[in-house]
UniProtKB/TrEMBL annotation:
Belongs to the aldehyde dehydrogenase family. PANTHER family: ALDEHYDE DEHYDROGENASE-RELATED. Keywords: Oxidoreductase. CDD domains: ALDH_AAS00426. The active site is at residue 251. Residues 11-477 form the Aldehyde dehydrogenase domain. One of its GO terms (molecular function) is oxidoreductase activity, acting on the aldehyde or oxo group of donors, NAD or NADP as acceptor. Pfam families: Aldedh. It comes from Caballeronia hypogeia. It comes from the Bacteria. This is Aldehyde dehydrogenase.
Length: 482
């Protein structure tokens, strides 16, 4: 199967006629090809999006009323649910993720679209008290054409949270999916067209990050860019956007800690702690990849978690085990190198999961690994692994726990497990993170809950109304009437 770009509700061949192989991570074999986009393809997509907006918000997309826009987004959510199985199968093959994870992703995408569909006609401004003789109001207007650089770990969910919010705000979108995860996004653009979105409202250009992605972030017609991915590429995209005064939202991953106190309910905590690092084979920006455990229960937690890690099984996405393969060879090499480096440093492995015997030797498999007594300044405690690898370390008291938790460059998510309500709240205020969960982690996704980082985890917020505001331009209108 040879996929093209999807621009202006039509399939378009790459300007240079070139394509890239799409590899099945479960086998290491190519099974399709995508177009290798360049700056000319991005220009075409931006032009199509500008056409949908029109010169004076009079294009076929921009001129829709809020209710019409909302209805289209609701219809899109329904169409996604109708195609959920097809989308999940496509995603699992393309990215290697376990089928159950891909099914959840399709459901969450539909939920994003429903949420933002419901927001469209509630996106209002304010009237502001001002000097006598004036009436002052604010209105939230679309920004224009927005760019979306989407990574390979949760393509459908990230498409939902950024493209869904941008469309709800009335913008037209140009999307550059990761070269390793383009197929679901292309199909989603096609489904949008079938649902009735006008040509140009959603455009997808596939290709390499350094070519199509770089061209998108540099394109003068792009008025806002949202990016999820590594800190290094995020800095590049942010810098390119800043040079032309284009706002950006950067979501750049983390080394998120969970703090487990002596009084925690371990029956409740341990399954959540496990899932937070195993889900999607650890390729999750908000993965709970550091576990800080109070000394009194340290050995108990290690023992109970070890049993769970040893039971973890990894295999081809079609087997739908606890984990599928990692997305590509590069990611497998990176995770393996970090595991080997930690072992070479003398960091102890407490437990390892297993790779299914049926798994192809050419697939990008990585078993779950539980490391104990991890030194806080080690690479394993400081750097994002982006694999099913958990670093556990002990602490004695609250002050030490906070110091350890805040002791990395990242600050995306944190979790606190304690039966002491005051402590939960106290720590929630002290932890440097965009989201803090007390006696839970991730809150099951929560499309309504603003999400984003501090420090090297990035800036700006996705999800919830906060994201929607970010996709609008606030205009103040001051009328002097005497
Ligand atoms: P990147 O940050 O390089 O890729 C993320 C997205 O950016 C992809 O769509 C990629 O496209 C695109 N991209 C790459 N280079 C550029 C560029 N110069 N200009 C614009 N867009 C670009 O991450 P990697 O895929 O290389 O993964 C490396 C590490 O990043 C992972 O191991 C993990 O630690 C982290 N990561 C974090 C994610 C998160 O959710 N926060 C998601 C993915 C990765 P393409 O893939 O086609 O090159």
């Amino acid at each position: 199967m040879e996929y093209r770009h999807f621009i202006g509700n039509a399939w378009k061949a790459a300007d240079n006629g070139e394509s890239l192989d799409v590899i099945d991570p479960s086998t290491g074999e190519p099974f399709a090809a995508i177009a290798r986009g360049n700056a000319a393809d991005i220009d075409l997509a931006v032009c199509a999006a500008q056409g949908a907006m029109g010169e004076a918000l009079d294009g076929p997309w921009a001129k829709l009323s809020p209710v019409e826009r909302s209805n289209l987004l609701f219809a899109y959510a329904k169409a996604v649910l109708d195609h959920a199985d097809e989308l999940a199968q496509l995603e699992a093959r393309d990215t290697g993720k376990a089928l159950k994870t891909a099914r959840t992703d399709a459901a969450v995408l539909a939920r994003y679209l429903q949420y933002y569909a419901g927001c469209v006609d509630k996106l209002h401004g304010e009237t502001l008290p001002y000097t006598t003789g004036f009436t002052v109001l604010t209105v939230r207007e679309p920004i224009g054409v927005t760019g979306h650089i989407i990574p390979w770990n949760y393509p459908m969910q990230i498409y939902g949270r950024s493209v869904g919010a941008s469309l709800a705000a009335g913008n037209a979108c140009v999307v550059k999916p990761a070269e390793d995860a383009s197929l679901s996004i292309l199909r989603l653009a096609e489904i949008a067209a079938e649902t009735g979105f006008p040509a140009g409202a959603i455009n997808v250009v596939t290709g390499l990050g350094g070519e199509a992605g770089a061209a998108l972030s540099a394109n003068e017609g792009i008025r806002h860019i949202s990016f999820t991915g590594s800190t290094a590429t995020g800095a590049l995209v942010g810098r390119t956007a800043a040079e032309r005064h284009c706002p950006s939202v950067l979501e750049l991953g983390g080394k998120s800690p969970q703090l487990v106190f002596d009084d925690a309910d371990l029956d409740e905590a341990l399954p959540v702690i496990l899932n937070a690092i195993i889900q999607n084979a650890g390729q999750t920006c908000s993965a709970g990849s550091r576990l800080l455990v109070q000394r009194g229960i340290y050995e108990t937690v290690i023992e109970r978690l070890s049993a769970r890690f040893e039971a973890m099984r990894t295999g081809p996405s079609s087997m739908d085990l606890d984990m599928g393969p990692l997305v590509n060879k590069k990611q497998q090499t990176r995770v393996r190198a970090m595991v080997e480096d930690a072992e070479a440093q003398g960091i102890r492995v407490a437990a390892r999961g297993k790779i299914a015997v049926e798994a192809s030797r050419n697939g990008y498999f990585q078993e779950a690994v539980l490391f104990r007594d991890v030194p806080p300044q080690s690479r394993l405690a400081q750097e994002e692994v982006f694999g099913p690898v958990l670093a556990v370390m002990p602490f004695d008291d609250e002050a030490e726990a906070v110091k350890l938790a805040n002791g990395t460059n990242y600050g995306l998510v944190a979790g606190v497990w304690t039966r002491d309500g005051s402590r939960g709240l106290r720590l929630a205020r002290k932890l440097q993170a965009g989201q803090v969960f007390v006696n839970n982690y991730g809150a099951g996704g929560g499309v309504e809950l603003p999400f984003g980082g501090v420090k090297a985890s990035g800036h700006g917020r996705e999800k919830g109304f906060e994201a929607l505001y970010g996709f609008t331009s606030l205009k103040t209108i001051a009328v002097k009437h005497g």
